[in-house]
Design goal:
Blueprint (H helix, E strand, L loop, with lengths): L1 H24 L9 H13 L2 H18 L3 H21 L5 H17 L1 H8 L6
Helix pairs in contact: 1-3, 1-5, 3-4, 4-5
């Protein structure tokens, strides 16, 4: 089981590190997206800060996972990003939904393993 956790942590970390850096530096081309997805990205770009915030969070979380440092913290900061990634692919661009579900599953596996670190966040009802 230890090997599965290490592979899940490093794979999830690499995904976020690479795609986060790509979002900031644009070294890989993006696939064509359906019009609702293009409109969504246009709205994010129009804010002037959301892309830097989202992709910066991905880079930080991915680096922490790859290095194995503060893994529960990395999982916490990546959780809302993952929820948005899955929702984006469910509602706007279903072509890569299987990859989004794999990312969600990797997060869930790691969160389950580190559940003791999250227990204080939820109070006595969730403590094991």
């Amino acid at each position: 089981m230890r090997i599965v956790l290490i592979v899940a942590r490093i794979l999830l970390g690499l995904l976020f590190l690479v795609f986060g850096l790509n979002g900031l530096l644009h070294f890989m081309p993006n696939p064509p997206e359906p019009q609702p997805a293009v409109a969504f990205f246009g709205a994010l770009a129009g804010t002037g800060y959301m892309f830097a915030l989202i992709f910066g969070t991905q880079v930080i979380g991915g680096a922490l996972l790859v290095l194995g440092v503060a893994v529960p913290f990395a999982l916490v900061i990546l959780a809302p990003v993952i929820v948005n990634i899955v929702a984006f692919h469910v509602f706007l661009s279903p072509a890569l939904l299987p990859l989004a579900l794999v990312v969600g599953a990797l997060e869930a596996i790691l969160a389950w393993h580190y559940s003791a670190a999250f227990a204080p966040l939820f109070g006595p009802a969730f403590r094991s």
